[in-house]
Design goal:
Radius of gyration: 24 Å
Order of helices and strands: HEHEHEHEHHHHEHEHEHEH
Number of strands: 8
Strand order of the largest sheet: 2-1-3-4
Shape: globular
Number of domains: 3
Strand content: 5-15%
CATH architecture of the largest domain: 3-Layer(aba) Sandwich
Number of helices: 12
Structural class: alpha/beta
CATH class of the largest domain: Alpha Beta
CATH superfamily of the largest domain: Nitrogenase molybdenum iron protein domain
CATH topology of the largest domain: Rossmann fold
Helix content: 40-55%
């Protein structure tokens, strides 16, 4: 009598009680969030990544395979429109039947507002005092040299241009800094949320999803200890970042940056902003300027010119790390170790 032979993959699925067709299709926007979802789905399935490593999430053109992943998705997990404004319409068109989880809107997510200007202390008050002093000085010296006034007017125009760029950036990307995945506190919150969304779509595997999320939260707690141990020896060191993407990391580990060269990864800094950063490096003895792999190294070299500051490369998206559950913790370790090494 002949026997019906089943494919090994199907046989394993039947023995484990998990039907392959029951595993939800999940589409995720960026690699760090993909890593968190992959950790919760570990042993059950694998999510699809929309924005490929090395690409900017702010502006991106979907490939056919990525559009297909959205069309076939039962669940979409994304940071939100503040990070990927173009993805909002794509989800509405291609994934209109999917359950959508926007992490920036989730209960328990720590949100931080965009910081103002090139320097991150209470510089606005100082600027106001400077402008007041200039006004008083002008009242006392009405016949000040016209050439000096022209220079001041030119500097004000440059600063106004930089301020306008910042205002346009805020308007385009919302009120909150979208780089919220760089807080391990947020990551731990999102793990349970992801497990709940997956369990709603796939109740049979709910136990696995929540067990994975609980294990991952324990891993993040241990990761926090690792990062603090790396940063503690260099606390007090001062650093400047290429673009202002790291304040969630800075807040979690109480390790603030002194400023940012660029407002965002989508804009180049103006002359006034570069001058402001160079002055800060010179006056306060900044130890480190952190660059990013996708940005023009000549800009960093311009800022470093004439200083003794060191430089290192950091990447908020983990573009050079293998996709999967291990990407997120390795991304955070790399941020800490590269910062500490630079300092």
């Amino acid at each position: 009598m002949s026997r019906l032979l089943l494919p090994l993959s199907l046989t394993g699925a039947l023995l484990s009680g998990t039907a392959i067709a029951d595993v939800p299709r999940v589409a995720v926007d960026i690699a760090p969030v993909h890593s968190l979802v992959a950790r919760v789905m570990q042993g059950v399935g694998t999510p699809d990544l929309i924005v490929q490593p090395g690409a900017s999430p702010h502006e991106y053109s979907l490939r056919p395979s990525e559009a297909s992943a959205l069309q076939e998705a039962d669940l979409v997990v994304w940071i939100g429109e503040d990070l990927t404004p173009w993805l909002h319409d794509a989800i509405g068109t291609l994934a209109k039947d999917a359950a959508v989880t926007e992490l920036l809107e989730a209960d328990g997510t720590m949100l931080l507002e965009f910081r103002e200007g090139a320097l991150f202390e209470a510089h606005d008050h100082d600027d106001e005092d400077d402008h007041k002093d200039e006004h008083d000085h002008a009242d006392e010296h009405d016949h000040k040299d016209e050439h000096d006034h022209a220079d001041e007017a030119h500097a004000d125009e440059e600063k106004a241009h930089d301020d306008k760029d910042h205002a346009d950036h805020d308007h385009a990307h919302g009120e909150h800094d979208p780089h919220a995945w760089l807080s391990t506190q947020n990551a731990a919150t999102w793990l349970n949320l992801i497990a709940g969304q997956l369990s709603a779509a796939d109740p049979e595997n709910a136990g696995t999803y929540f067990a994975n999320a609980a294990a991952a939260r324990g891993e993040i707690e241990a990761l926090n200890g690792e990062i603090r141990a790396v940063l503690d020896p260099v606390r007090g060191g001062q650093f400047i970042v290429f673009h202002d993407a790291y304040q969630y990391f800075e807040t979690d580990f109480d390790f603030p940056a002194s400023g940012a060269i660029s407002i965002s990864d989508a804009s180049d800094p103006g002359p006034a902003r570069i001058t402001e950063i160079q002055a800060r490096i010179a006056e306060q003895g900044i130890d480190c300027v952190l660059a990013e792999p996708q940005f023009n190294p000549d800009m960093v070299a311009t800022v470093l010119d004439g200083t003794q500051a060191s430089t290192a490369i950091i990447d908020p998206l983990g573009s050079d790390i293998e996709l999967g559950p291990a990407l997120y913790p390795q991304l955070m370790r790399n941020l800490a170790s590269n910062l500490a090494g630079c300092l």
